């Protein structure tokens, strides 16, 4: 794939990941194993809100084809096929869930030095269509996405965004929720090795006349350990510690406290991902 402005979903992603990625209040345990023929099996157990669920996933890659099969506790099977470079600079993703065949989707991504385009169509009689486009460079990008429901002949979404990236910082503005919200974020690396970073984000919801301000940061303590924290103007304080127990095996502990209601029990989440 050529280096270009990236997908529309990449706009603001670095800042969003610091504020949201790997934060959890659930208990999750997963084990990865790899067979001799290259099939990667993943077994996952999840406890959420007193309910326990689990799934088994298998991945297999052959040349430019990636096959991903996931079976959950309800015996639903999700199969995803990803083809790369069938046509130069493209990626094709096809997914189908059994027995819910209407959940199938076909997506095509096209990458160019100065533009990317994606089209996703649901595989049902009256499909929904999602399209997105981004133009620019890795340093500055403008993008938009829209979703259209052919059944009701209405737009399900339309969003626009812009991002500016420098070696030590990146900023983005996204107008979403059909124009009802705007989110601006800024990330700044505090050292040349990018071991520490600070993030600020403000979201404005016009229909509710409400602002949400969130600040956070991450710090790489050592090659095996990373810590993150975040706080918003509603008093929600979150913290996370991630440690690599053995190569590619991660222990993640995260928690959330409502600083405006300290009498409430803090939320705690633990995730263990083992790769023998």
Task: Describe the structure concisely.
By secondary structure, the protein is mainly beta.
CATH classification, class level: Mainly Beta
Query: How far apart are the termini?
Result: 31 Å
Architecture, according to CATH?
Beta Barrel
Tally of contiguous helical segments: 1
Biggest sheet, open or closed, and with what strands and sense?
Answer: 19 strands, mixed, barrel
Shape: globular
CATH topology: Porin
Please state the CA-atom Rg, rounded to the nearest Å.
Answer: 21 Å
What fraction of the residues are assigned to beta strands by DSSP? over 45%
**Relevant CATH superfamily:** Porin
Average pLDDT rating: 92
Counting helices, strands and paired strands, the structural category is mainly beta
Poorly predicted regions: none
Following the backbone from N to C, one meets helices and strands in this order, namely HEEEEEEEEEEEEEEEEEEE
Fraction of residues in helix: under 10%
The count of β-strands is 19
Q: How many domain units?
A: 1
């Amino acid at each position: 794939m050529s280096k270009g402005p990236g997908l529309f979903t990449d706009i603001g992603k670095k800042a969003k990941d610091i504020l949201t990625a790997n934060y959890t209040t659930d208990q999750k345990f997963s084990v990865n194993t790899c067979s001799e023929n290259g099939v990667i099996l993943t077994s996952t157990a999840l406890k959420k809100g007193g309910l326990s669920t689990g799934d088994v996933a298998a991945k297999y890659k052959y040349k430019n084809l990636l096959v991903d099969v996931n079976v959950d506790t309800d015996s639903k099977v999700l199969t995803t096929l990803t083809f790369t470079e069938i046509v130069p600079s493209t990626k094709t993703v096809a997914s189908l869930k059994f027995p819910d065949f209407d959940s199938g989707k076909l997506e095509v991504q096209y990458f160019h030095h100065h533009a990317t385009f994606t089209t996703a169509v649901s595989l049902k009689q009256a499909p929904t269509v999602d399209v997105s486009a981004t133009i620019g460079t890795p340093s500055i990008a403008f993008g938009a996405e829209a979703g259209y429901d052919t059944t009701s002949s209405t737009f399900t979404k339309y969003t626009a965004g812009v991002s500016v990236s420098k070696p030590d910082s990146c900023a983005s503005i996204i107008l979403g929720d059909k124009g009802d919200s705007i989110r601006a974020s800024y990330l700044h690396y505090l050292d040349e090795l990018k071991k520490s970073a600070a993030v600020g984000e403000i979201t404005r919801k016009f229909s509710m006349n409400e602002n949400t301000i969130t600040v956070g940061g991450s710090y790489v303590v050592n090659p095996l350990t990373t810590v993150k924290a975040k706080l918003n103007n509603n008093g929600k304080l979150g913290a996370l510690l991630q440690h690599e127990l053995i190569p590619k095996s991660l222990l993640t502990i995260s928690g959330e406290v409502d600083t405006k209601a300290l009498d409430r029990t803090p939320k705690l989440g633990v995730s263990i991902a083992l790769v023998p």
